[in-house]
Amino acid sequence: MPVYNIIQAVNDALRLEMKRDPRVVVLGEDVGKFGGVFRATSGLYDEFGPDRVMDTPLAESGIIGTAIGMALYGLKPVPEIQFADFIYPAYDQIVNELAKFRYRSGGQYPTPVVIRTPYGGGIRGGHYHSQSPEAYFVHTPGLKVVIPSNPYDAKGLLLSAIRGEDPVIFMEPKRVYRAAKGEVPEDDYTIPIGQAKIVREGSQVTLLCYGAMVHTCMEAAEKAAAEGFDPEIIDLRTLLPLDTETVLQSVRKTGRVVIAHEAPRTCGYGAELAAMIAERALLSLEAPIARVTGFDTPFPYTLENEYLPSPDRVAQAIKQTATY
Amino acid sequence: MPVYNIIQAVNDALRLEMKRDPRVVVLGEDVGKFGGVFRATSGLYDEFGPDRVMDTPLAESGIIGTAIGMALYGLKPVPEIQFADFIYPAYDQIVNELAKFRYRSGGQYPTPVVIRTPYGGGIRGGHYHSQSPEAYFVHTPGLKVVIPSNPYDAKGLLLSAIRGEDPVIFMEPKRVYRAAKGEVPEDDYTIPIGQAKIVREGSQVTLLCYGAMVHTCMEAAEKAAAEGFDPEIIDLRTLLPLDTETVLQSVRKTGRVVIAHEAPRTCGYGAELAAMIAERALLSLEAPIARVTGFDTPFPYTLENEYLPSPDRVAQAIKQTATY
Amino acid sequence: MLAKGQPVSVSPPRNPDEVFSILDEDGNVRKGVRAPEVPDEACLKLYRGLLQVRLVDDRYMKLQRQGRLGFYMQSTGEEATHFGGAYALRDSDWVFPSYREPGLAFWRGYSLTDFTNQLFGNCEDPVKGRQMPVHHSARWLNFVSISSPVGTQIPQAVGMAMAARISKKDDVALVYFGEGATSTGQFHVGMNFAGVFKAPCIFFCRNNGWAISTSREKQTASKSFAVKALAYGMPGVLVDGNDLLAIIAVMEDAVKRARAGEGPTLVEALTYRRGGHSSSDDPNAYRDPTEVAAWEAQDPIERWRRYLVKRNLWSQELHDRYAQEITDEMMAALKHAESLGPPPVESMFDDVFAELPPHLAEQKAECLAGPRPKSGHGGH
Amino acid sequence: MLAKGQPVSVSPPRNPDEVFSILDEDGNVRKGVRAPEVPDEACLKLYRGLLQVRLVDDRYMKLQRQGRLGFYMQSTGEEATHFGGAYALRDSDWVFPSYREPGLAFWRGYSLTDFTNQLFGNCEDPVKGRQMPVHHSARWLNFVSISSPVGTQIPQAVGMAMAARISKKDDVALVYFGEGATSTGQFHVGMNFAGVFKAPCIFFCRNNGWAISTSREKQTASKSFAVKALAYGMPGVLVDGNDLLAIIAVMEDAVKRARAGEGPTLVEALTYRRGGHSSSDDPNAYRDPTEVAAWEAQDPIERWRRYLVKRNLWSQELHDRYAQEITDEMMAALKHAESLGPPPVESMFDDVFAELPPHLAEQKAECLAGPRPKSGHGGH
Ligand SMILES: Cc1ncc(C[n+]2csc(CCOP(=O)(O)OP(=O)(O)O)c2C)c(N)n1
Ligand SMILES: Cc1ncc(C[n+]2csc(CCOP(=O)(O)OP(=O)(O)O)c2C)c(N)n1
Ligand SMILES: [Mg+2]
Ligand SMILES: [Mg+2]
Q1: Contacts of C192 in chain D (CB under 8 A)
Q2: CA A13 to CA A162: how far, in whole Å?
């Protein structure tokens, strides 16, 4: 089995699906000959030609707007937004159109568009190349939100997303784009959307995370384990629909919860997790739910390591929550 | 003291502040001679002329984009977005520009723009004239989010917002635009941003709400009171920054919480409230926090009364939470 | 007021600031213009269509005033723009309408029953009571779901046109919008993509002079809207929007070019919004009623009628028969629509996704179990 | 490649698809054109400015390659566009730059010390280490904070220009952007507002042929970018972007009109991005290097030098002195910037709002009390 990083796994999934299904097309800024600024679409232009791999003018609303039109006609567009920070010009097309098309037309017009976009900090990109806007999309009925943390999941989830009938915001953790490596089967496999994965079993604290934070949390768990703590880590993989059962089972077992994400705290996805748990497992809770998150400031440049949840900050939360 | 509805109170605040401060300007679609589709800017064009009350082309990103430029030059723009549902074309200008301008320029360039926009359902507007997008803005560092529920607060909060130095999303509950009436002093007064208000004292359950939901909750409280329940109702008035103290004091007293909002549940503002309370007052909680909200579907047309939290649904949550 | 353009060739290149027109006010073909050949039968079908829009608008606007309908938008005076666009297409082409072109739907076969059920948002509404009145959707007619946000359909139409090209089909897209919509970013972005990708898409701008209370002069400083085409390397044509024959000529030309792979066209049809913006609007608050009167004299249906008279196709008897048929059909549709209840409350949770996810299943159960409004249905 | 335009009047109306140029490649004023009168001293100051941008770009790009700087963007070959715009303004006018016009800041008085501190995001960075390198802001120079999202500054500049008019001041706004930015909704919306409100705003499009890997032909199907002005009822001028004198002429004209209340102008300066998009980019992956070579022969600094030679203003000695001064200043700035630490961690919570709200005060305390990275500063 080849060892891929996340970029290669995404590239592999796109190539595989474009071969299998002639309806799949890719579009976005610089995704053609150049293969995308992160090279996730590398080689696709040469293999599938300009009709199926389209360099677009610089307009995210045009990328998503035309992708919707393509989906209406029966194609399966997989647009790329170069950085999640630049998705906002397309926000109206995403939240008012893409998310509501099936519903508003009484089921007549599904719009299965899968929007790929790199997100998150840790690459010294300041607040315009580091944002984690997932909560905006989770709060928008009609969108699924998927965030892989490793190459294996990236391929399997992306294939599921493209084969599905719903719009998906597929967010790729650019910080670990190259750093997260792993074996990826060359052939076809899918990972169902809506299933979380326990990536470390433990008994004491449930650690909820996704994307690049999974790696931070694993490191934090090592640190905490060295001091005798035993956290369980759940990689959520899909934010919407959430795998509530896996989360609650773990919480009922541990009675303690730490949530980690890069996005600002207030009204972030961690708020929903905490609220859901407090609603459904209040009596199991033996300690307050801790949120280790980005602060409620724009993402800074020089001080990004102070801003981002670090393994140390997560480890501290594990210990405090475990000993509460 | 005159009795005003919310539209009249907003209009009064705008007129008062435009007289007092020549830097204040109003702009938006149809806000000029016509006075806005809800008539909130009625008469201002005749009084202050086309330089200070500007009908704009149909482009929300232009309304907010130019308002930012005006603020940079020293004006105090109060743009109107005709319906909150149409704010998304301006989303990039709001979340990437307006919210971050002061921060990204190291404090050099404040952009005190107050965006007024009617929001919420109950007017038979379907999903494009009924949305409650407040959580999107609360999750965006750099924005204050203010939602009055009555004419007195509307005037006092709007004056505070315009006199402040920060960008404010000022959301007006259009369902009670005309229905919510009350005495409003003719002269100048402000209500500080960041202060909630207990609108009904009670001992048993804390009911958290804002905007039109305050009226729904008051009605629910009457119903529940008739059956012997005693809820306390807090009108949050400002969603960001939240008056955490007032909320927590009440929760520590009652040990029980019901949250009501119109927006979809998942990742809505109620999630943040519940998370915050579960973090800080877990040991005071005697029952799970209940969220009575819009469902996670686009806002429907015919079935809007099924969708919107009704007094009955809130009353049921009060009773269930109180007797848990 | 409509500038009197000299009849010139419909085909680009032509001056996008000059109005192209074929019929004069008396219904005569202007000298020196080649009129498109519209068969007798089609001429009458078009007349019936124009009439249907007018009668339906009149009736449903009254209904709204009586409180029997929640909301309505009329297109009185702009009817020719609907049919000029619709006529030039074949069935496999797609239309992306805005909210003010019911004739476009009728021409393609949308029944008054579907139309009326949508207005009432009842249990037979093709969009299941999900949208405000006048937001139709008819997939079986390649008539795309109407959306309130102004302009969003424009890049979508371009995408559909690109998809047709990619799929090696020669279907074209026709997208409608008001002149107000040209100010949105969506217009720009859609036009630009269409230019670059040579998308077989026709952009139809109904310039009716007003965007709610905002006049055309406050919308843009350009001389015409058609001239905006130059910014995208495509031809722009300004046509008399009350002259059905001229619109047909311009559209047939644009469709031919699009289908042949020669790229997009921007058509501006100069007309006038004689009514209020919607049933919620009072235009007297912001505009001079004499302006309206002047445009009433330019009525597109009357102009078409005069043309048919010249062609010996029109008679009062025929007109009366059409009017009667339409009225009967409408009254039956209305009666039916008013007799129906709302969509079932369970349906509120359908179609958010292809399948009901767990959290929505729970919310649905919660909704059904919880206290519910006595009359959930406010559709009437 | 630069089309050889006939020298024509700079003032509109003129054909926006024809390149206006004053200096030929040898630095001669073309026959029949009236060149603007630029005093000797200014000519030399402009030369020094051009040189400074070139030297700074060369040095800091190397620094980035050595890993001493996180990120850099050069503007080699486009320097004339910075100074042509800057020269025509007075200090009270405002500029809304994109990320590729350092000369604009230098001309207005931005020091190499501030410039370098910004690149390093250190504790003396005027924007407090909040933004990536090259995102300068200098309020004291009416040089507005640079933003990464492409095009957002365009309507902002229009708003500032409207505000000046409303405030009865005759300040003008000058906004820069690349040709890629013309595809954004922001461009359209800003241009349209400017037309409608007759905003005293000059839109300066640096058409350098590339938007990262996307060539100009994939960006739009219009013949020029200047022609897009017609869509907004304003004049568009296409100017040789490597001809400083021509840009000055065009800009002086546009500024005069703006200041006189005659409205906005779109200027397209035709030039070429000789380097990569940024230090993260490898242009050889997508374009033919011979294209670059052809444009090197059109170097704007060399053209200006030849002009100065004709005016007897230039000498090797002077050049060497300038180069030495700039290098010394730069090395001092660099040494200083590298010696400084990061901004204090507390500062991360400032300037989100005018005053620190309670939740941020708590988070600040949490941050200061919590475990913190050993080296928070990655600025170098
Ligand atoms: C993005 C957006 N902004 C504002 C509105 C409110 N609105 C509805 S229709 C309209 C005017 C549209 O005018 P025009 O495009 O000329 O079409 P017409 O109504 O004349 O047919 C406005 C401002 C909206 N629906 N969408
Ligand atoms: C809204 C947005 N989308 C995408 C990007 C990524 N991006 C940065 S620069 C750039 C190309 C800009 O090209 P152009 O406007 O021609 O300016 P140039 O770099 O040539 O000076 C792109 C796509 C961005 N910064 N903002
Ligand atoms: Mg109109
Ligand atoms: Mg460029």
Answers
A1: 183, 220-221
A2: 10
Question: What is the spatial distance between Cα C158 and Cα C149, in angstroms, rounded to a whole number?
Answer: 17
Instruction: Say how many Å lie between the first and final Cα of chain A, rounded.
Output: 45
Ligand 1 within 6 A of C273 CB?
A: yes
- Residue D41's alpha-carbon distances to C165, C222, D23, D151, in angstroms, are 59, 41, 19, 35
User: Which chain B residues are Cβ-neighbours of C71 within 8 angstroms?
Assistant: 124
Q: What is the pairing mode between strands A24-28 and A76-80? A: parallel
Q: Is the pLDDT of residue C378 over 90?
A: no
Q: State yes or no: is A261 an active-site residue.
A: no
The structure tokens 């999202």 sit at D149
CA of B59 to the centre of ligand 3 (A): 14
Rounded to 5°, the CA angle B37-B38-B44 comes to 85
Q: What is the pLDDT of residues A52-68, one digit of tens each?
A: 999 999 999 999 999 99
With a cut of 70, say whether residue C370 has pLDDT above it. yes
Read off the pLDDT of residues B58-94 as tens digits, 9 standing for 90 and up. 999 999 999 999 999 999 999 999 999 999 999 999 9
Which tokens go with C222?
């350009």
B/D interface, count of CB pairs below 8 Å = 154
Q: Flag whether pLDDT at B150 surpasses 70.
A: yes
C277 tagged catalytic = yes
CA distance B81 to A92: 14
The mean per-residue pLDDT over the stretch B130-158 comes to 98
H-helix or E-strand spanning residue A60:
helix A60-73
Contact C164 A73 (CB under 8 A): yes
Long-range contact list for A39-42, CB < 8 A, 24+ apart?
A: A39/A7, A39/A11, A40/A7, A40/A10, A40/A11, A40/A14, A40/A80, A40/A116, A40/A172, A41/A11, A41/A14, A41/A80, A42/A11
Angle between helices A269-280 and B269-280 (to 10 degrees): 60
What is the band of C13 on the pLDDT scale with cuts at 50, 70, 90?
A: low
> Helix D244-259 and helix D300-310: axis angle, to 10°?
90
Q: Which two tokens stand for residue D37?
A: 């009168």
pLDDT of residue D379: 39
Quick check: B243 and B195 in contact, CB under 8 A?
A: yes
Structure tokens at C106: 């009728």
What is the value of pTM for the model shown? 0.98
pLDDT at B49: 98
Query: Please, is B70 exposed, middle or buried when counting C-beta atoms within 10 Å of its C-beta (0-12, 13-18, 19+)?
Result: buried
Is B278 exposed, middle or buried, given 0-12, 13-18 or 19+ CB atoms closer than 10 A? buried
Q: What is the dihedral of CA D229, D230, D232, D234, to 10 degrees?
A: 70
Phi/psi at C95 (nearest 5 deg)?
Answer: -120, 140
Residue range D60-109, pLDDT digits in tens:
999 999 999 999 999 999 999 999 999 999 999 999 999 999 999 999 99
Pocket test for ligand 1, best of C57, C150, C204 (most atoms within 8 A of CB): C150
Tell me the ligand closest to A58's alpha carbon: 2
Whether chain C has a CB inside 8 Å of the CB on B91: the answer is no
CB A316 within 8 A of CB A286: no
Share of residues in chain D with pLDDT > 70 (%): 95
Q: CB under 8 Å to C368, separation ≥6 — which residues?
A: C345, C346
CA–CA–CA angle B38, B42, B44 (5° rounding): 140
Q: Which residues contact C334 (CB under 8 A, 6 or more apart)?
A: C59, C63, C116
- Give the start-end residues of each E strand in C208-264: 210-211, 214-215, 236-240
Secondary structure of chain D: what % helix, strand, coil (to 5)? 45, 10, 45
Buried b (16+ CB within 10 A) or exposed e, A142-155: bbbbbbbbbbbbbb
Q: What is the pLDDT of residue D208?
A: 98
